[in-house]
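seq:
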Amino acid sequence: MLDPSHPIAKLLKEDRRYKIDAYAFVFEALNYAHSQLGMGADQSAESEEEASEEPTPKEAERHLTGQQLCEAIRQYALEQYGYMAQCVLNSWGVKATSDFGEIVFNLIGIGQMRKTPDDRREDFDNVFDFETDLRQSFKITPPEN
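struct:
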């Protein structure tokens, strides 16, 4: 159960467009992008003047662009839900990649994610088409013997 004082619980009360599952899925897909797909350029939380110093693990971040995160989301959704990926995402209120932008920027707004000065909500618009890239292109691959 989500603690009612948690920022995401408050967000869910203020913005009812998306279910908590959609927010959790974005975090999972971000982790998938880093750990499984090797996506994300290392970013330092330090200023450019101190860039020559080696960042500590806490200071180093692996940043994804909106387009990269959408691609990771697409791959993770297909891996997790297969042919039903579009249906599952739709059931959480997510109908297009722009919805992932709304979710990410909601999370940024409550301090649960960070952005760079170059990141924009529009970076998530029309990255892929749910019908084409989650349903029509889905292929069942039999295991190799």
